[in-house]
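2024-03-11 09:14:02 INFO worker-7 job=invfold-0412 stage=load source=structure_tokens
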């Protein structure tokens, strides 16, 4: 098999993993002002992702490194053309990470409120901008013959990309509230379930509009099929949540994100960054890839590394599989 196709598939898999895993992290962070009625609630919400959020973010590092090594032209065009949007994402991720670590360092309520606000911002901005970025990649951007982006930052804020950003924002928000429902109990769990139900209905409407636009304007047969599957799993997640089946709801939402991202990548293939001004300037898996030898070496490394990464991730989730309750937090406070 052509190794450029293999590595397009691997990068697709890595981004799917990142959006599924860090997606619910973003949603949990955004849910704090809606679900956290007091500081104990907010600590419970944050602790649901406390042991895993940084592990989830490593998928982005691996995806970016793989993109750089396998498709350097794609990486160069993407990071030079979208540098401001990607810088905002990076700063937001740093802001969120710092807030997780520093929130509990002082007891003052004002101190904690400020870091809670930074967690919300550091979750919402990437959730929105990742959608904007991928919306523009699918839609195509103006490129010159040297594959350099010739537009401006504001050219990226077109209606299709903004709808893509709103879609990822709502998908991740609902994904996160379902995770809170899965990982908590009592009144907080009930609030999370109700919030997931309301946001889920809005997500269905917005996501359906985006997937329909994508299918009609940029889609292929297989991307259309996967978009339909994503729509079915999204509706299934909302129905499962309404019936109190937290595990099924969260699993269906994870499948929704996975199928939606896969449909976007299939809409691209064999392009990796279409040129909206001149198709001859488009980046494809052929003209954006590294040498055959580089891809061969990377493939052998991936065969060893990827199973280890997946095994470690699975083990971590198993270790931290139990629900987080108010009693856990109150007990820890009493111990101090």
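2024-03-11 09:14:09 INFO worker-7 stage=emit residues=336
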């Amino acid at each position: 098999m052509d190794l450029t196709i293999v590595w397009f598939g691997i990068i697709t898999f890595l981004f799917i993993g990142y959006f599924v895993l860090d997606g619910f992290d973003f949603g949990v962070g955004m849910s704090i002002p809606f679900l956290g009625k007091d500081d104990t609630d907010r600590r419970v919400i944050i602790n649901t992702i406390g042991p895993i959020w940084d592990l989830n973010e490593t998928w982005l590092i691996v995806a970016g490194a793989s993109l750089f090594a396998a498709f350097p032209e794609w990486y160069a065009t993407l990071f030079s053309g979208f540098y401001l949007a990607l810088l905002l994402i990076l700063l937001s991720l740093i802001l969120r990470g710092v807030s997780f670590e520093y929130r509990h360092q002082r007891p003052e309520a004002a101190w904690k409120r400020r870091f809670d606000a930074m967690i919300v911002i550091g979750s919402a901005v990437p959730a929105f901008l990742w959608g904007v970025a991928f919306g523009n990649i699918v839609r195509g951007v103006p490129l010159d013959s040297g594959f350099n982006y010739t537009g401006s930052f504001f050219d990226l804020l077109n209606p299709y990309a903004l709808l893509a950003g709103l879609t990822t924002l709502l998908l991740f928000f609902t994904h996160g509230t379902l995770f809170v429902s899965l990982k908590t109990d009592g009144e907080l769990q009930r609030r999370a379930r109700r919030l997931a139900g309301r946001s889920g209905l809005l997500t269905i409407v917005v996501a359906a509009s985006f997937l329909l636009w994508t299918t009609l304007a940029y889609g292929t047969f297989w991307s259309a099929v996967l978009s339909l599957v994503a729509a079915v799993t999204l509706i299934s997640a909302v129905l499962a949540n309404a019936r109190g089946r937290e595990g099924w709801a969260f699993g269906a939402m994870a499948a929704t994100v996975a199928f939606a991202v896969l449909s976007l990548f299939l809409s691209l293939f064999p392009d990796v960054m279409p040129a909206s001004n001149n198709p001859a300037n488009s980046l494809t898996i052929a003209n954006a890839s590294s040498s055959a030898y580089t891809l061969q070496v990377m493939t052998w490394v991936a065969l060893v590394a990827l199973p280890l990464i997946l095994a470690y991730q699975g083990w971590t989730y198993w270790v931290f599989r139990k629900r987080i309750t108010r009693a856990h937090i109150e007990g820890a406070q009493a111990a101090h």
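2024-03-11 09:14:09 INFO worker-7 stage=report msg="Residues 29 and 120 are 5 Å apart (CA to CA)."
2024-03-11 09:14:10 INFO worker-7 job finished
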